């Protein structure tokens, strides 16, 4: 029997990333676990070895630090055993756009957008050459909902959705599966870390249920997985409405409503 591909998971030290690690370990995949808190990663690796007999390598990395990010990129480029990337590490910010500092905003973009994109870029050529493999990008329903008031966070997640859709078109024909997962509120440390109390909120999903649903989508090779959305046709309708505009964008002249000022 050929060995299952290894899975590299960013943000594996807590929340959604830890559950992905548990689930891929239960499926018999060796792992590469990435986060800043290497004590937690070590404890997780020991538990997964004991419970599932899989081997986990640990990379302690702050993905907003270019030198640390470069180590993870190199691993994805060079380690042919890695066949799945779970681009999960991410954070949110306390406050609103008027109270968030430009440095904090830039740091969030560096983690949620730049590192995620660079890691996909590091692994994609190798997977495309092999004609197999998968990239799971953790986006968010907030990327569809500016109304929620998490403006920069939501913008980073809209980027992740768009990137995933573009990569599906570019990499799909080469045998590489790209999935965007859009959780809504899920019970993890992200809330406390960004100054919010999850216990005051309703409609919060358990982390295990979220990841198990996302993996149902993964096994079906679904492009966009929105675990809490009851009616999948609502996503299909939104995407179809967007696509219906596409043939109308290329025009020599401005639309009638702009031909007169005022
Ligand atoms: N929970 C929700 O309601 C929700 C909803 C939609 C989407 N999401 C997305 O789900 C993903 C996972 O978040 P979570 O909810 O599981 O939150 P979490 O429990 O706070 O986990 C975030 C993970 O990212 C890692 N991380 C944070 N900053 C990092 C950095 N600079 N460098 C490397 N790793 C870093 C953390 O590890 P260290 O601190 O050890 O570095 C941790 O393992 C994120 O992309 C988030 O945006 C969450």
Describe the structure.
With 262 residues, the protein is α/β, with parallel strands linked by helices. It has a single domain (6-232), classed as NAD(P)-binding Rossmann-like Domain (Rossmann fold), CATH 3.40.50.720. Helix content is 46%, strand content 13%. The protein is built from eight helices and seven strands. Strands 3-2-1-4-5-6-7 form a seven-stranded parallel beta sheet, sandwiched between helices. Helix 3 runs parallel beside helix 4 (102-130). It is globular and about 70 Å long. The termini are far apart. The model has no long low-confidence stretch (mean pLDDT 97). It binds NADP nicotinamide-adenine-dinucleotide phosphate. NADP nicotinamide-adenine-dinucleotide phosphate is lined by residues 11-17, 35-37, 61-64, 88-91, 111, 138, 140, 183, 185-186, 188-190, 193.
Outline the fold blueprint.
Layout: E1 6-10, H1 15-26, E2 31-35, H2 38-52, E3 56-60, H3 66-78, E4 82-87, H4 102-130, E5 134-138, H5 151-171, E6 177-181, H6 190-193, H7 207-219, E7 224-225, H8 232-245
Parallel strand pairs: 1-2, 1-4, 2-3, 4-5, 5-6, 6-7
Helix pairs in contact: 1-2, 1-7, 3-4, 4-5
The chain binds NADP nicotinamide-adenine-dinucleotide phosphate.
NADP nicotinamide-adenine-dinucleotide phosphate (NAP) is lined by residues 11-17, 35-37, 61-64, 88-91, 111, 138, 140, 183, 185-186, 188-190, 193.
CATH architecture: 3-Layer(aba) Sandwich
Main CATH class: Alpha Beta
Low-confidence regions: none
Number of DSSP-assigned strands = 7
- What is the CATH homologous superfamily assignment? NAD(P)-binding Rossmann-like Domain
Order of strands side by side in the largest beta sheet?
A: 3-2-1-4-5-6-7
Mean pLDDT: 97
Please give the share of residues in helix: 40-55%
**Chemical compounds bound to the protein:** NADP nicotinamide-adenine-dinucleotide phosphate
**What is the tally of helical segments?**
8
Strand content: 5-15%
Q: What is the string of SSEs from the N terminus onward?
A: EHEHEHEHEHEHHEH
Count of folded domains? 1
Q: In the CATH scheme, what's the topology name? A: Rossmann fold
Shape: globular
Distance between the termini: 71 Å
What is the CA-atom radius of gyration, in angstroms? 19 Å
Largest sheet: 7 strands, parallel
